Amino acid sequence: MTTLTGVGPGRGELTAKAGYGVTQRRVLLSEWTKLRSLRSTLFSLLAAIVFVVALGILISWAQASHWDQASQIDRLTFDPTNTSLSGVFLAQLAIGVLGVLMFSGEYGTGMIRATITAVPHRLPVLWAKSIVFAVVTFVLMTVSSFVAFFGGQAMLSSKHIETTLGHSGVLTAVVGGGLYLTVVALLGVALGALVRSTAGGIAILFGVLLILPLIVNFLPSSWYDNIDPYLPSSAGQAVFAVVRDSSSMAPWTGFALFCGYAAVLLAAAAVVLRRRDA
Question: Is the dihedral of CA 271, 274, 275, 278 positive or negative?
Answer without folding.
Answer: positive
